[in-house]
Amino acid sequence: MKNLNLFQKLFLSYLIVILLSLATVGVFSYRSASSELNQLVESQLSQVVGNAVNHTDLYLRAYERSMISLFNNNDVKRFIDLPAGRTGILIMSSIR
Questions:
Q1: What is the largest CA-CA distance in the chain?
Q2: How far is residue 86's CA from residue 48's CA, in Å, rounded to a whole number?
Q3: Phi/psi of residue 5, each to 5°?
Q4: By C-alpha distance, which of 86, 96, 67 is closest to 78?
Q5: What's the gap between Cα 8 and its chain centre?
Q6: Is the dihedral of CA 38, 39, 40, 43 positive or negative?
Q7: In contact, 71 and 77? CB cutoff 8 Å
Q8: Residue 79 and residue 91 in contact, taking contact as beta carbons nearer than 8 Å
Q9: What angle do CA 64, 66, 71 make, to 5 degrees?
Q10: Cα 85 to the chain's mean position, in Å?
């Protein structure tokens, strides 16, 4: 540094100060943005999971309703109560 003129010394010192300031601001901005993105992702994931649970519950309720209506049907009850080896052809022919 002794053989540099005044302009080069000032330029180098200001360059170092500016680079350190930019690095500090960059690290702070990166950490802040990273934290915000993590919170946003967590919020979005919990919303997606909530929606999946809701849709699964609705599907299971519809399935349960259809199974209840199916098992309340007298023809289905007679078919289920048939002895082993018998088919439901006789039941269906007796309905007509």
A1: 114
A2: 49
A3: -80, 175
A4: 86
A5: 56
A6: positive
A7: yes
A8: yes
A9: 95
A10: 48
Tokens 């082993």 belong to which residue? Answer: 84
Question: For residues 88 and 11, what is the distance between their CA atoms, to the nearest angstrom?
Answer: 97
Per-residue pLDDT of 29-39, as tens digits, reads 999 999 999 99
Among 74, 68, 67, 71, residue whose Cα is nearest residue 92 = 74
Share of the chain above pLDDT 90, in %: 62
Closest CA to 7 of 19, 15, 17: 15
Of 38-42, 87-91, 92-96, give the lowest mean pLDDT range.
92-96
Q: Which amino acid is at 15?
A: L
Structure tokens, 24: 């500090």
- Residue 92, pLDDT score: 52
CA distance 78 to 49: 42
pLDDT tens across 28-77, in order?
Answer: 999 999 999 999 999 999 999 999 999 999 999 999 998 888 888 887 77
